[in-house]
Amino acid sequence: MISCIVTPMPNWPPKLQRPCQPMNPSLLASKPTEVPPIPNPLSPTPRTPISDPLSPSAYRSVSPVPFHPGTPQIQAPVAPPSAPVGNVISVTGTGGPDLQSGVAMNAGTGSRPAPKRGRGQMNPQAPSGARIPICQMCGTPIRGPFVVALGKSWCPEHFVCANNRCQTSLVNIGFVEDRGQLYCENCYEVHLAPTCSKCMKRIKGDCLNALDKQWHPNCFICCYCSKPFGNSSFYMEDGRPYCEKDWNELFTTKCVGCGFPIEAGDRWVEALSNNYHSQCFKCTKCLKGLEGQSFYAKGGKPYCKIHSRD
């Protein structure tokens, strides 16, 4: 791309000029011509996702003209590209980050509640006139002593570990409920408790499901700041999870004007080796919008024609 250069003139202000075609160095001394109004280089058409957001076809860079004190210079916007542009990092090519939700334990899809633990309570025969308990295992009325646990009743001989190879009585020891079945604590921890994908230890309490794996809630953390995600969502980048704060800080393109990320679908301007939301690209002094306009660069900042003289 050929940079646009303004030749200093005896009379102020200098006339704007922009070459219409490649120029021979010998022609640089020719008389400058005034620049007609420059159309808005940004198409209002919604952004079309691209497979490689960093490919040359995605956008064109505008190289600033070297600045010399006292000489206003033009930064001419590039011609409209053949396809809608957008300068937003996208891992999946869908125009936005790959957002996955790490759901809080015990709440909603993606989590597995901690197993219920307890001890059975032995009760004497139900008093006369009272409701006769029904055994949870055999489904028959219990006429003698019975065990109560988790709001249900069992015949004492049926209140045993659900593991067929164990069948240990749970009357005098603790039990663990998993998917509606009661197990002794040893069988649950050895055979049923899921393994944490990070520490590789058995998960005996709350279990978090994320990325098709199981985790201790305190083991599923941001790979950058090491904070647990808790109820928060997380972003995936190169197969690694990040919290929203760190993902935005590390991977998003930010507007120099407002400091906020330029997101998928946002109109944006690339000028002076920086990126701006279209509404943030303004004259540094009067704040007049410069989108689609010629402007002057002073100290690496954009100015309108009037305030470039200050």
UniProtKB/TrEMBL annotation:
Lineage, uppermost ranks: Eukaryota, Metazoa, Ecdysozoa, Arthropoda, Chelicerata
Annotated source species: Larinioides sclopetarius
One Pfam family per UniProt: LIM
Compositionally biased residues, Pro residues: 34-47
Region spans: Disordered: 27-50, 95-128
Position of the signal peptide: none
GO cellular component: adherens junction; filamentous actin; stress fiber; Z disc
All residue ranges annotated as the LIM zinc-binding domain in the record: 194-253, 254-310
Keyword Zinc tagged: yes
Gene3D superfamilies per record: Cysteine Rich Protein
Domain of life of the organism encoding this protein: Eukaryota
Statement: the UniProt record of this protein carries the keyword Manganese: no
Protein name: LIM zinc-binding domain-containing protein
GO biological process, one term: actin cytoskeleton organization
Keywords: LIM domain, Metal-binding, Zinc
SUPFAM superfamilies linked to this entry: Glucocorticoid receptor-like (DNA-binding domain)
GO molecular function: actin binding; metal ion binding; muscle alpha-actinin binding
